[in-house]
Amino acid sequence: MEALRQQLVQLRQEIDAFPVHDAINTEDFRIRFLGTMGALKTVMAELKNVPPEQRKEAGQLLNEIKSYAESVYQQHLDRTRTTTVETSRTTDRSRSGSPQPIGSRHPVTRMKNEIVSIFQKLGFAVAEGPEIEDDWHNFGALNLPAHHPARDMQDTFYVQQNPDWVLRTHTSSVQIREMEKGTLPLRLLMPGCVFRNETISARSHCFFHQVEGLYIDEQVSFADLKQTLYFFVQEMYGKDVQIRFRPSYFPFTEPSAEMDISCFICAGAGCPVCKKSGWVEILGCGMVHPNVLRNCQIDPEKYTGFAFGMGVERPAMLKYGVNDLRLFSENDVRFLRQFPAVS
Ligand code: PHE
Questions:
Q1: What is the domain partition of the chain in residue ranges?
Q2: Ligand 1 nearest-atom number relative to CA 210
Q3: Is 212 in the pocket of ligand 1 (CB under 6 A)?
Q4: Confidence at residue 89, expressed as pLDDT on a 0 to 100 scale
Q5: DSSP assignment, residue 33?
Q6: Distance between CA 132 and CA 229 in Å, rounded?
Q7: Residues 56, 57, 58, CA angle at the centre, nearest 5°?
């Protein structure tokens, strides 16, 4: 009996000294003292060696140590459980984050980026400018003085507070701003939105996008313009596509032309897209008018340049099979969701 008493005192000391600081140690504690092969089971087995008259007292002592071990175990359990939760909340940086929907890229932006990236291969940089312009940058400097009949070619929105301000009708205004800076040569692309007072329908809109290009250096010729645009068309529509130029008129270029490509849908056989002509018009272009250069303090005897401008919505409609221009600006998520998030 005395031996058992000694054993129990020692066991109690062991229980108190057992180091527990997390859930794993707690389980070690349970196995060491309360498990099927644990220390308590071992001392319980001693009971049969105790003389029968002392068994009652011995049984009481054993029960006491058992419930003491169980209560210490419960305390460890409570303490380490909360510690585990706190630890995971503050330090587990390896857990994956919750996924965030990133939306999709607007089809007009996709088309614009595609056009821009082709010209970037030829060394064109991107320039941007204001959407509300003064008369000089949108018209005057572009060889369209007040009352010039060609102003009617672009139905303009005027800003009520200031009769000198317009919503830009083309991104050619950015060409002027860049030429005025006085650093030459220039090889620039000007993407952006433009505004014209047109009736809104499936085929026309008062708000749309353009990409214009400008190249000014010594000895730039119409041949350079043709070659540049031919490169663009081949990259954009494929190697088999043909181009043709038709004489045209823009006040800011001389000579001026409109460029068609052979219909990439029917390869010239005739379809609704090319209106059975075999050709699709894609842009206007020409050699920068000497007056425009002069307006920007550039000597037309020394420098020449070409410019071109194209719409973004029309090629986007053809590429993505969109049949109504209004879809681009209504921002209906059912439409926008159909375009992937990347590129
Ligand atoms: N600015 C013209 C337009 O909006 C396009 C263009 C640009 C034509 C440059 C020729 C040269 O219609």
A1: 2-88, 107-336
A2: 4
A3: yes
A4: 59
A5: I
A6: 29
A7: 90
Query: What's the pLDDT at 49?
Result: 86
What was the pLDDT predicted at 95?
79
CA Rg, the chain, in Å?
41
CA distance 179 to 186: 8
The pTM score is 0.72
Residue ranges in the chain whose pLDDT is less than 70:
82-90, 342-343
Phi, psi of 201, rounded to the nearest 5 degrees: -150, -175
308 lines ligand 1 (CB under 6 A): yes
pLDDT per position as a tens digit, 53-109: 998 999 999 999 999 999 999 998 888 876 555 555 567 778 788 887 778 899 999
Q: Is 168 a pocket residue for ligand 1 (Cβ < 6 Å)?
A: no
DSSP state of 158: B
Which residue owns the Cα nearest ligand 1 atom 9?
A: 308
- Domain covering 107-336, topology: BirA Bifunctional Protein; domain 2 (3.30.930)
Cα–Cα distance between 318 and 28 in angstroms, integer?
Answer: 71
